[in-house]
Design goal:
Elements lengths: L3 H20 L31 E5 L5 E5 L12 H4 L9
Antiparallel strand pairs: 1-2
């Protein structure tokens, strides 16, 4: 019913996989390229003016952290596929 050889081989494979994952040297995770100079995507930028609406944390006086507006002024990431095929309908620009 239960084959002891198959169970032993399965446990050995699982143990070797665990040991390799636990004790092997891990590479540095590859960071995805930032879509904009500030690292925020198109959803955080105003479509007409291009300014970023995200707040970022920075170090202030006495080691405290404060939230300030992102300094990005223009989205420089990839163009959305919708802009290739369709024009924006609403709201009218004129």
């Amino acid at each position: 019913m239960l084959d002891p050889i198959t169970l032993t081989v399965g446990v050995a494979i699982a143990g070797v996989g665990w040991a390799v994952g636990r004790f092997s040297r891990r590479g540095t995770p590859t960071a995805s390229p930032a879509p904009c100079g500030c690292g925020h995507d198109l959803a955080m930028h105003d479509p007409q003016e291009g300014i970023c609406h995200t707040e970022v944390s920075r170090k202030s006086s006495y080691g405290l952290r404060e939230w300030v507006r992102c300094g990005c002024r223009r989205y420089t990431g990839p163009t959305p596929i919708e802009d290739y095929f369709t024009r924006t309908i609403l709201p009218p620009a004129e």
